[in-house]
Hints:
Blueprint: E1 7-18, E2 21-33, E3 38-42, H1 49-56, E4 65-75, E5 81-83, H2 89-95, E6 100-103, H3 107-110, H4 117-128, H5 133-146, H6 152-156, H7 165-177, E7 183-187, H8 195-212, E8 215-220, H9 223-229, E9 232-237, E10 240-246, H10 247-252, H11 257-264, E11 300-315, E12 320-336, E13 340-344, H12 351-358, E14 366-371, E15 374-375, H13 381-387, E16 391-394, H14 398-401, H15 408-419, H16 424-437, H17 454-466, E17 472-476, H18 484-501, E18 504-509, H19 512-518, E19 521-526, E20 529-535, H20 536-541, H21 546-554, E21 578-580, E22 590-594, E23 597-600
Parallel strand pairs: 3-8, 3-9, 6-7, 7-8, 13-18, 13-19, 16-17, 17-18
Antiparallel strand pairs: 1-2, 1-4, 4-5, 9-10, 11-12, 11-14, 12-21, 14-15, 19-20, 20-23, 22-23
Helix pairs in contact: 4-5, 5-7, 15-16, 15-17, 16-17, 17-18
Amino acid sequence: MLDNPIARIDRLRVEFETKDGRIAGVEDVSFEVGAGETVCIVGESGSGKSVSSLSLMRLIEYGGGEIAGGRMIFDRREGGPLDLATADQDVMRDIRGDEIGMIFQEPMTALNPVFTVGRQLTEGLRVHRGMSREEAEARALELMKQVRIPEPERRLKQYPHELSGGMRQRVVIAMALACKPRLLIADEPTTALDVTIQAEILALMDRLKRETGTAVMFITHDMAVVAQMADRVVVMFRGHKVEEGPVEEIFEHPKHPYTKALLAAVPKLGEMRSKSLPEPMKLLGREQDEIKPIPGTDRPLLKVEGLTTRFPVKGGFFRRTVANVHAVEDVSFTINKGQTLSLVGESGCGKSTAGRSLLRLVEPQAGRIELDGTDVMGLGPNMLREARRDMQMIFQDPFASLNPQMNLADQVAEPMRNFGTHSGKEMQERVAMLFDRVELPRSFMRRFPHELSGGQRQRIAIARALALSPKLIVADEAVSALDVSVQAQVLNLMMELQAEMGLSYLFISHDMAVVERVSHNVGVMYLGRIVEIGTRAAVFENPQHAYTRALMKAVPIADPRRRKSEKDLNFKPIPSPIHPVGYEPEPNVYQEVDPGHFVLTSDSGY
């Protein structure tokens, strides 16, 4: 027990009203957080970790929940301990944002789309701290610099939709830190972030915690982040706390079977050393499955040469094009049949745009795309539609890519209906077979997307992508929002399908441990260019470009004894990809350091 914890949750029980009566979201959970301490709460979605944090903020009532038992003692700045479970909503309004800061998981929904970033950052300072407009704006600028947002003065005048996901998340973090809270609740704050920004934000939170003595309650399902951040760990499973202990103890001697399964499902960077081919992970409970490497073939399926995609920036009275965003600049690569090429890099480096340009969902300015002998760039609308049967995409957010009003069987059947490949009974059988393939029960066929968890929705997206038996699947951050164990299952599923059906993947991701697990070849992107490309072993075990090395350094390792310190992270701010009209960048020049291992020698800006 701590002497005087800042927050103490004691036998908390939270209930929700459902059609089938009342159910408990969290039952009999107790833990405490002391000053200057980070307590990580881990578990999968549905384990009750976010419910406990929303209860502390007393926001759970707005989400249909009710605190049915237990106490939540919070030590206030003035006035001493207070039981938040019985506190008045007016008192809670003063505490929220001032004494308890919260970083939400989904930055787009945590920000108000109709106000500028500057207005949202200064609001809390003016309400809770009584600052004048000038003082609040100066503090907002200082916070933006603290979370390392490039061109902060310009960003303060922008709206949330004008920022990338990583930048929005940094704004949300700046808002939570604005009033220097006593307790900071971080709910999956780095899930949607790149490795480098994640490393910086974790270091930032760690530094602020040390400087200000803030207590941090950190909710995550990423065990590498837990190893990097936690002093103590609380493991939750189905609404119950199943294990608690110091971070080294949990990682080295887990007691509960669930904790052991959770740790087994974490892909660890360096696990694939000395293996030349990707292979599925060994999961607890499925050890008897035979693990076979996936060789693929050496026959090229997709050839991309000189792909260039730019977006116009309009301005002035006549909305003329005043500049261009150079999203993808002179990119070339080849993907063989049955193999995986991964593109890695930070958000805004152009990897998603490159994936979308292949399917011509975004029109490239220049370049050649050849899929199995077909010149994709030369196709008219009707021929392009036919060519897309061979190329499918799995998007990052499965909920946004599914239709909320169609049941799942219809969604999986839709591509077949559109292209007229199957009909009637044959189509029903194929849908049922695809459900089996992605390991979802056939009883789910009548359900709707909102009735599934994130991992199950992502499986539906995979089943739909497979419906037309494509040759190439572009997976854009397809597993980044999933829990560790679900992520491991979905990755294994994708690799098993690749082995069975000879699929080729363009795998777009910022998770280096996942990329190491699934890739045959890896390309590292920075500011729209590929700065290094080669086999997985070459790029991961012998990185040559300065940026690739910085990226490798930033990856948190799931081992609490090998933590990164802030001095390890020396990232240069990312220059702007926006250039005036008429600007022509120099072409990319590569040097072959080993057979098949190329490094950019012309100036990449890093």
